[in-house]
Amino acid sequence: MATTFEIRKKQRSGIAIFKWSLLTPFFLLLLFLLPVFLLQIYFSFHSWSVYLSTWWEADFVGFDTFAEVLSDERFHWSILRSLIFASASTAGCFVVGFGLALLMYRPFKGHGVYYVFFILPMLTVPVVIAYTFEMLLYQKGPVNGILSALLGTDINVIWLAHPTMAVITVILLEIWNWTPFTFIIMLAGLSALPEELNEAARILGASRWRIFREIHLPLLRPVIFLAVILRFLEAIGEFPKTWALLQGGPGSATETIPVYLFMTTWDYFQISKGAAMSYLVMIVMILIVLSAIRILMHEKKNLDEMYQAKETGE
Amino acid sequence: MSRQTKKKLYTLFRFTALGIWFCIVAFPVYWIVATSFKPDHEWFAWPPVYWSATPTMDNYKSVWTSYTKTLATQEAESMQKPWIALQNSLIISLVATTITVFFGTLLAYGVSRYRILSEVRMFNLLMFRMIPPIVVAVPISIYYSNIGLIDTVTGLAIIYIITTLPYAVWMTKSFIDEVPIEIEQAAAILGASKWRTIGEVIFPLVRSGVVATFLFILILTWSEYLMALILTKTDVVTLPIQLAKYEGATEGRVYGRQAALAVGITIPLVVIGCLIRKHLVRGFSFGMVKKR
């Protein structure tokens, strides 16, 4: 019958319109952002800094700026520092967060109070954290005071002014700030574990450690990957705390990629160099993210299956 | 060792470990609250003053009632406008969050029910959000100064909408996914239009989820620092930026005032966070991990 066919056709076009109208805001935002990427390409290939006249009259220099960035030793160091910072803080966050989650996933009295307190750092404004720790960590400050009192000797750690210590301080700060992130993810993962397997294994006489290693860990794999990868990517981009606390100093000890990028552009006004540098960082980050996507997509499938199995099982 | 002693030892270990971390988390929080009540001479005192013998509200007063005579000479004019910063922060984060959550929910609905973007594509878009925002900061600031959006509330709000949209989409999607599709089919059979189905069937069912998403995004926009630092100059100051301005020319950082303002900024976030503590994990893991 022609009429049903027409109705169906109408319905289908109605759905198409509906779909596109849901997508419009998204495309508008992409359109809004498009010039940003064009500008980035432009500035990478043209030499411009704010001391020159208008930006659209800048000289075309081809790959010169890229070459300059690639041979810039400070840039190399910033990459190394970022990697050290991100890996160390991710490892720290994960170990502490997972440990806490393991201690907490079976409810006990006062569970809720601990939970609320443990998520506090994550809810605090990063800049506030930076300034709080500045108040805590100066040489004649409360942290050294407490450590001296606890250990009975005079502790005089130079938290902020010594290059190596400053890096450690920044890493510890990141761990303090973002342990809640791994904690809540691991806690949720642990409480989603199927109880029956546990019981079965215990009846068969498996030790606690063996249950943990051979049942829990494999099941938790997707959650672990998720927590570690997301945390690592976030840590690479960490800026507010490092900047507000140390501005890349002492010397250039805490100059991570974001900090160095910021300084190049807004302190030295080398716009082109900043653009080229961000371009390079962006490409590397895209590669990293692409591989992260591959891993996570795979793990996410496992995770969804686990939730589904749990829902149908109950 | 008998089973019982083992158990007791484990409990002892558990509470020591939890207690240690509790102190590590609580001490800085305590310190900033304590500092906000300290009079000037106790900020840098040695040995450190753990709780002021003469607590004072002066810090709060001088932060929020814009001008004090004692500090007028040392402090810059710009630090005397926390109310403007508060107003800007409120407008920017509320407006940006509302728009983000509105469009985010619609997009999430489309993805969940009509597959307007495949899951893989959605996931890719999300992960590209994980590229540090600083890599686009340079062109954005130039772009903004050319189209007149730099140092405006609108400009900052737009950036926040873009950066938080992925979070909103994924978080609401995880809530919408939980609504059985049969309900919509029933609504369609009863003759409800698609928009009406969203507004009157789906939305009421996921309302608490949408509210949780709203509050979660509010936390993100309220505490954002980098973009606010880059895209504002003098007119628009948000609270995190305002916080950095408490530097006296002669006396270093004005810790007490800074602490007072910091406490004010943080309290709303802590309250919100505790309200949605069950959903936080969903937000931060983009709806991939759920808590039950």
Question: Given the C-alpha coordinates, what overall shape of chain B results?
Answer: globular
Question: Distance between termini of chain B?
Answer: 36 Å
**Beta-strand percentage range of chain A:** under 5%
Overall pLDDT score of chain A: 84
Q: What is the makeup of the main sheet of chain A?
A: 2 strands, antiparallel
Written account of the structure:
The complex is a heterodimer of chains A (314) and B (292). Chain A is mainly α. In chain A, 78% of the residues lie in helices and 1% in strands. The radius of gyration of chain A is 26 Å and the shape is flat. Chain B has two domains: 3-74; 78-284, MetI-like fold (Orthogonal Bundle). Chain B contains twelve helices and two strands; from the N terminus they run ααααααααααββαα. In chain B, helix 7 (181-189) packs across helix 8. Chains A and B meet through helix 1, helix 3, helix 4, helix 5 and helix 6 of A and helix 1, helix 3, helix 4, helix 5 and helix 6 of B.
